[in-house]
Amino acid sequence: LVRLRARLARSQNSLGKGLLTLLSREHLDEDTWEEIEETLLTADVGVAPTQELVDRLRERVRVLGTRTPDELRALLREELVALLGDYDRTVHTESPQDVPGVVMVVGVNGTGKTTTTGKLARVLVADGKSVVLGAADTFRAAAADQLQTWGDRVGARTVRGPEGGDPASIAYDAVKEGIAEKADVVLVDTAGRLHTKTGLMDELGKVKRVVEKHGPLDEILLVLDATTGQNGLIQARVFAEVVDITGIVLTKLDGTAKGGIVVAVQRELGVPVKLVGLGEGPDDLAPFEPAAFVDALIG
Ligand code: GDP
Questions:
Q1: How many Å apart are CA 149 and CA 13, to the nearest integer?
Q2: What is the pTM of this model?
Q3: Which sequence ranges are marked TM in the entry (predicted)?
Q4: What is the ipTM, given to two decimal places?
């Protein structure tokens, strides 16, 4: 939490602090409520959630009457946590069958997919799990090397194929390797070309189908770059049409004041943000915990 707070402090604090300052005004007139709305919209919270939150805040402030700073802080905290929703945010890697848990990581290139896969491997290994990495991003030339570097660093074997090889066959081999090694988890990094939806659908669909030949797929994590705002939402929509996303990883939250995208993307997909990326380093992947997140926002 301390680390999360420090990371978010630089970029996001303005959102929570801004809201708190506005709410603390003696007279909460229409202009102030509009400013509150604008603050939320600027932070990418999205139109409908912003409206809901403002309505609830207005109602609660009205009921409260005079407000002490502590009361306001508590009220804002509660409402923001409620806005983030009550989801199961566990990354499920316990396969119900006697095969490794399989997690497929999808997203547009550049969002931090490979880095996230590496960081997640590190978390799992630190948790005592044995991990196999599948370098099925054969589109980006350096992706397999990059993943292997992560694998070597954290102690996970990396299964890779020839450059430009068939992603599905690499994914298949990775899971096969995981089964042979009796690994606990196989993480499959995929390519995120958004050139055409059919191309993406064909490729990811095929990866998914071949992986499922070995057993159930436990998670499909969508990696989104928090700094891309509306564009990220459009990407999310496209991917959700192609595969059944089970969780979202929001990366680069350290580099944006637009943390409200967490709310917007969950609404868009109806799927929880499970992990957040807070930097480029190996320890910069954290479980997403609404209460801690909001505490970091409000400061
Ligand atoms: P991919 O093409 O989606 O696999 O993207 P990469 O994993 O290669 O990441 C693209 C860039 O984003 C790299 O320079 C990463 O170090 C950086 N990156 C990834 N996650 C984060 C994050 O949470 N915060 C920051 N600041 N940078 C990140």
A1: 34
A2: 0.92
A3: none
A4: 0.98
